Amino acid sequence: MQAQDLSSDTPTGTRKLIVRRGAGASDTDCVAEEVPVALEYNGISHAVMLATPLDLEDFALGFSLTEGIVDSRADVRDIELVEGRGGLTVQLQIASGCFARLKDKRRSLAGRTGCGLCGAESLPQAVQRPAPLQSAARFEAAAVSQAVQALNQRQPLRDASGATHAAGFADAQGRLLLVREDVGRHNALDKLVGALLAANRSAQDGFVVVTSRASYEMVGKTVRAGSALLAAVSGVTGLAIDLAADANLALVGFARGDRLSVYTHPERVLWAAAA
Prior knowledge:
By secondary structure, the chain is α/β, with parallel strands linked by helices. The protein has helices at about 55-65, 95-110, 125, 140-150, 155-160, 185-200, 215-225, 240-245, and strands at about 5, 15-20, 25-30, 35-40, 45-50, 75-85, 90-95, 140, 165-170, 175-180, 205-210, 230, 250-255, 260, 270.
């Protein structure tokens, strides 16, 4: 199968191609973009991710918070996106205290060998457990189902390419307020968290819905953002359940239609009384 560029009149973050399918037949197809994105803090490169080149300032903000590099939007003083030959660089200027903490973390990871996860030597070091949520928020099961269904209708990149994930934020009534997409499920969630920060909107006022499975990383990011419920269209992992239970997060899996599987803190999910 051969492909060639056709045009750029496609949703941002995708590319339209002519695809040769054999026997002289050809078709048009859209594919999701995936490019290296470097994150620099105060002039020092910290991480390089593969991401869809869309909403990258949101991505950098969200990643910075969910990875514990900063504690709030106020800690990020400036963000600049720079294009390079090999990809894109997001340059962030962060508060001196946060930068000192980041440098200490980088020194503690340097040269380690062991389990291979994030340079950690043991499971307790690799699996960082965020502080438990203090929120007393509860949500109607119908509101969660409504948000999941709305998320399915607000994924232009998925509709064009079939190759992206999405993360959405809904208010307590189930109204979907923000959606972000990316080829990576973690990236989509980080973009959503960053969009919340940029809009000065508190994640405590609603809940998060995602199109992927819920891993422990997704749980950790949701807790650090401050939301008390994470609903995933697919399944959940055992470690995600353990982390969510400790963090006071309601973890919902297989959120499809009116059916929800609530794995932790079921008191946060309110079901309508039977008729």
